[in-house]
Design a protein that fits this description.
The protein is mostly beta strands. Helix content is 2%, strand content 48%.
């Protein structure tokens, strides 16, 4: 499904549209598109790697979400084959060899950190992981019944601010609230509409969006929703 936009919503970026047209590169760091968002704690960009290469001592935690093609990540822990609509976390300090298909297109989310987090080697997002109950939105922000939410985290940074995994929820309606986080999200199931005073945008299964630090937006889901996420949110 392609995103349906009535008018731009300031907090939300359609990441498939953003990644269109990025030029191919043979270097993990060079050739990334001008970031869709960047500050001292988070940088979200896109790349179209070609061929293969080696990265030694990755300087930040990075999450790669494959939109098209295939990306193989080889490390001492084994080989991850990252297919479309899935992702992998490359922890700070990790060494790995990458191989990209000739049609690879991916979003790369970099989050600086001071030390190694919950994993020291590349780790794939487990789409079939058992999820545990997680906190729903605050009651004072809801415009309807409290949903039932679940989560599974595949990676948590050393400072506890960058987390990647899967999440699901029953339908809910939440009013617009300020965003302190920068979240990259791929919808695996369901549909969500986001709105602010300027307009609204709807995303469905297979769509990829990013929420940036801002005045935020409202959330409306009328069906079950499941997503892959990577989020950087300051603890203080």
């Amino acid at each position: 499904m392609s995103a349906v936009i009535d008018q731009a919503v300031g907090a939300v970026v359609d990441m498939r549209a953003y990644a269109t047209g990025v030029g191919p590169s043979t270097d993990w760091f060079a050739g990334r598109k001008t970031p869709a968002f960047a500050d001292d704690a988070a940088q979200v960009s896109a790349f179209a790697l070609r061929g293969q290469g080696w990265v030694e001592g990755l300087p930040a935690d990075e999450f790669v979400l494959v939109l098209a093609g295939r990306l193989d990540i080889e490390s001492e822990a084994g080989t991850l084959a990252v297919q479309p609509d899935n992702g992998a976390v490359l922890p700070v300090g990790s060494d790995f060899r990458w191989r990209a298909s000739d049609d690879l297109l991916a979003i790369v989310y970099s989050a600086p950190t001071q030390g190694q987090g919950s994993a020291t080697a590349p780790v794939a997002i487990d789409l079939d992981a058992a999820m545990t109950p997680s906190s729903p939105p605050a009651t004072e922000n809801l415009l309807g019944p409290v949903p039932s939410c679940r989560n599974h985290s595949d990676y948590l940074s050393a400072n506890g601010e960058f987390v990647c995994g899967i999440w699901d929820s029953t339908p809910y309606h939440r009013r617009q609230i300020p965003y302190r986080q920068v979240e990259l999200m791929l919808l695996l199931e369901g549909e969500v509409s986001f709105s602010d005073r300027a307009g609204s945008v709807s995303f469905g299964k297979g769509d990829v969006c990013m929420f940036v630090r801002s005045e935020g937006c409202a959330w409306l889901s009328e069906t079950y929703v499941k997503k892959i996420y990577a989020t950087q949110r300051p603890l203080a």
